[in-house]
């Protein structure tokens, strides 16, 4: 695996690379992260615009400022390009003190190349380790025992079924097998209703494809396949065959290969599609009039599956607090900020106000977000499969999404799907 961010590049202080980055930084406020003022904490985040939890985060930031009047907080906001923006600022030693982002793609390499630091010692020094769910702590810990970031947001990723649309089409029960899903899709199409909507052209399609393939994989087998790009095992081949059978039977919405996550949620929320694989942040956005007749469950199983119950994804790496080398220089301010964000009252507000699942211990439930709460209660009714993000080499991430889009195109055979997935790893 080779990251696009190298130790040599990051350590090239004063080199032509760092110097070349500086003009770009000076002309862009979102990049001019480092503040020389020792009493200013710089936070780089994906929260602050339309991302789920943004209003709660901004309100929390206001409370933190009021509680710490001598400490200024500079908030930098980026969307999906946060990783690239942060890496550019780090090359110029202008990076933020704290970064709020998930463990995925570029960020997998940050601790290895000293773009961020091991936060394990701070978890212990500040007495915050026991606030973290053990599973979350494990997910954020790398092979060398380093904790990449302070865990914060988690997610349940079940399947949402619009029972009103299923009833209209004459589908008596939520499908739990592939045959039942195919039969339901036929009935839904006969009524002009799209069956399963999915963003086949982005990360949502990639995750659903991985989930379906894992129908026939144990956790260890899935970990091997997505770490190495070896999709030749019998279980993987069975999973790909199952996906192709569902796709060619019309289970997915028309032209799913061109849909995005936004189009997917729009189709479900406007009731033009009956089923979607939806992480908890998407479940929180389902309108009340749709949520009241929506049921959450797992992805239906094929014959001879490796699981006993329909599957969902659970993940604890959605957002964490990473500490940068600049942040170490202001560690007393970072400590105040993270203690505040880990406080039970702050955590509870994200759950109550934004419907977020958390990677921290809490007794608060999402009473105003019934589908999020329902997903939390699924328990033994479903089986859990792996989120592949932490195993896929960064260089393979985008090629896998491209391979996914082709895979959702009708007529692409199972052998071609397998070849596409394996080809995504060749540059990794």
Automatic annotation (TrEMBL):
Q: Does the keyword Aminoacyl-tRNA synthetase apply?
A: no
Arranged from A to Z, the UniProt key words for this protein are:
Signal
**PROSITE patterns the UniProt entry points to:** PROKAR_LIPOPROTEIN (PS51257), TAT (PS51318)
Q: Which InterPro entries match?
A: Bact_solute-bd_prot1, SBP, TAT_signal
Any Pfam family from its record, for instance, is SBP_bac_1
The secretion signal range is 1-34
Q: Does the keyword Iron-sulfur apply?
A: no
Q: What is this protein called?
A: ABC transporter substrate-binding protein
Organism the protein comes from = Streptomyces shenzhenensis
